[in-house]
Amino acid sequence: xxxxxxxxxxxxxxxxxxxxxxxxxxxxxxxxxxxxxxxxxxxxxxxxxxxxxxxxxxxxxxxxxxxxxxxxxxxxxxxxxxxxxxxxxxxxxxxxxxxxxxxxxxxxxxxxxxxxxxxxxxxxxxxxxxxxxxxxxxxxxxxxxxxxxxxxxxxxxxxxxxxxxxxxxxxxxxxxxxxxxxxxxxxxxxxxxxxxxxxxxxxxxxxxxxxxxxxxxxxxxxxxxxxxxxxxxxxxxxxxxxxxxxxxxxxxxxxxxxxxxxxxxxxxxxxxxxxxxxxxxxxxxxxxxxxxxxxxxxxxxxxxxxxxxxxxxxxxxxxxxxxxxxxxxxxxxxxxxxxxxxxxxxxxxxxxxxxxxxxxxxxxxxxxxxxxxxxxxxxxxxxxxxxxxxxxxxxxxxxxxxxxxxxxxxxxxxxxxxxxxxxxxxxxxxxxxxxxxxxxxxxxxxxxxxxxxxxxxxxxxxxxxxxxxxxxxxxxxxxxxxxxxxxxxxxxxxxxxxxxxxxxxxxxxxxxxxxxxxxxxxxxxxxxxxxxxxxxxxxxxxxxxxxxxxxxxxxxxxxxxxxxxxxxxxxxxxxxxxxxxxxxxxxxxxxxxxxxxxxxxxxxxxxxxxxxxxxxxxxxxxxxxxxxxxxxxxxxxxxxxxxxxxxxxxxxxxxxxxxxxxxxxxxxxxxxxxxxxxxxxxxxxxxxxxxxxxxxxxxxxxxxxxxxxxxxxxxxxxxxxxxxxxxxxxxxxxxxxxxxxxxxxxxxxxxxxxxxxxxxxxxxxxxxxxxxxxxxxxxxxxxxxxxxxxxxxxxxxxxxxxxxxxxxxxxxxxxxxxxxxxxxxxxxxxxxxxxxxxxxxxxxxxxxxxxxxxxxxxxxxxxxxxxxxxxxxxxxxxxxxxxxxxxxxxxxxxxxxxxxxxxxxxxxxxxxxxxxxxxxxxxxxxxxxxxxxxxxxxxxxxxxxxxx
Length: 948
Ligand code: SF4
Ligand code: SF4
Ligand code: SF4
Ligand code: FES
Hints:
It comes from Candidatus Methylopumilus universalis. Residues 234-290 form the 4Fe-4S Mo/W bis-MGD-type domain. It holds the Pfam family Fer2_4. The two termini are 42 Å apart. By secondary structure, the protein is of the alpha/beta class. The longest helix has 19 residues, at 310-328. Bound molecules: iron/sulfur cluster (3 copies) and FE2/S2 (inorganic) cluster (FES).
């Protein structure tokens, strides 16, 4: 179905142009272009099998031979670069003869079952046989062949049928060049050569199921199981992945209203045709039997749910909100939106709160992940966003990754980063744990792994800056020209203090001062240096301080304002950036403008025709505290599952139980919905129009490929609720909402669906000055004018290890699962990660008599949970690690209420704990099991609830 043109070999970029003729047609192309690519540009298609434009040419199939006047023989057009003045012929009787002979050999060892083959009509081998005019095959099947080779069906999403393999090696090269996993090889020689996943099944091999090999395979050898089951698609719609902040573009390939395949878009600005296992394969949750598609209400969380019409549900929700506001006051209600929602959905939720509820009690899940990024970058650079596009990494000479695990959290970007690292860029990793990029990715090894103790980020960033200043490695001219002088001088006095030296700080970080000094030198003097960071930076009591420390480091070394450098927050969820941009924080209107700013207030009051509040509203933790105190009584929660994803679960559920009306809008009966009184069924990303904004500020279209199973797109549900509350909204399409956003938000002024359709995607700011968007920010000056160095004093967290709680628990993600797992747990991705495990260093395990697979109780000051142990040296002694993708794991039962001083982002990454071998579940888990079984039954659903 993917009818995007394949030029055969990759595009080359050069200032020099070469002129040639191909079949008598003159063509001019950049130097380095292959003859095949040039032919394709001039409209001539040369037959090919082993070449495709996402991979470097290989020259093995000999189908693409051409004749070049004055040259001997028949060079392969895929591996032959153009030369000035050459005259190429692609169609001659001799070439036709050779090509037919080549095809005949391929076909003679290939099953002749085209008519019943799953990819009939979508197979390059079939196309080529037709293109070279092959009608008969002179060789029979009597001799040796591969037709009885056994299929490998171990991967849940695709099948490998070696009987159809033509050993073109495209899969092997895709795994190496595009994905960077090197899981496949061609084993043997000549007739015996075959594709091997390291002599293992695909499922048990190094394969991470990214799908690049399946995408590259020109035959039905590597094929999606959905295509085997449903056949080839009929039409496709381009949309955006709903999982992580990379924001990959996909073609949703359809048969009627059924998705049969998601194919990565070659023109996708963030992914350039690549994908990971989630976006490529894990979309089955959208039609999972657990989905709730009828609205439900109930008086108490101890009652079964009653299925009702949309009218009844919306009117009940509105009347409850009105009753509560009348009884407890205007500020007793609020809403939480989610980074999983589209920009348009988030925008209408904050508008509903501000205009229909009359307060500013709106927050978003970015509170618990990247709110320190927004704050820290705004203070230092003037804009709450990353500074680059992903492609910028291809110009980096030094890459510093702090508190992020790109191969698991941002896999498609990680593949691009790995490509640059294989080309020779230096790598510094600052992380308490040995992520795969440290030394577990083929051909990649970190030059420095600063394996710090959790909670000592600011100590290490200060130590790095101390070395750069005291050893005079800084970029004086950049600082002089681009940064505030007074702020820099004060900061310099602070950072040069001996207590910030790596030697002094090693008491906190546990990192050898020598390594810090060496890493600082490479970062400052190794060429273009870029910083990529994740939640390991933000989810700390000093999250905002660390973000400012990172910005200081970039300014100090002049690494900002051009390609290859910059400060790059790797956003977790698909629309974290967008949710923040859209004004879903209690203190900001869209575009990060404070609610007390008179001009902004006047602008929105006029546009929305309503009086607005100029005081910030409640953040999520405040809403929960005030609910327990009895003054916050109703919550509208769209697409967010605070009962699973927020810290200190008991506190969250106690707060939810204290409210009189909890309205949840979601696909599934999530953990929060178990405490709800109104359930409004949501629509999946396949069922609605809108936009997501990825970690590069790239706005991409989400397009409806099927009708909403619940009847409405999510923004329509919010609109109905607003209208029922008496505040009129009358958008007729998601594009109307974007038009309003553009009218009211300077950085979005030039954005429209029309322009998005034309350009594919746009990186904001997009306005009169930057009508096509802004890939790199702060080029000539910072958004705030001069960059501001801010003093970042290291203050150790109050969460300390003691004799009772001697270990530090830190948390993270895994490739196959996504966040709270509501989506991925309902896909075949569970094949890779059925339960959350706790990683323990062998030393700590031995002291406690724990072995891999044992149940261990993890006890913190907040609570206790039980997980299975995995003994590994990835973690350092004194540190344990777990993921949080399964609700029954209760990872947040043990995390504490500590949070970032500036933004309240929870300190998920540091919890003092003790672990011990146990034989039964924790009390919380037993209660959870009982409560959730009852709630699932109340909703008329059945589910095998699995705890271990
Ligand atoms: S599996 Fe497909 S891509 Fe790989 S060598 Fe065989 S035919 Fe080529
Ligand atoms: S799915 Fe991806 S990782 Fe697995 S073998 Fe294919 S290219 Fe390699
Ligand atoms: S990298 Fe992220 S956006 Fe891309 S396919 Fe994977 S989950 Fe989706
Ligand atoms: S396409 Fe050129 S040798 Fe195969």
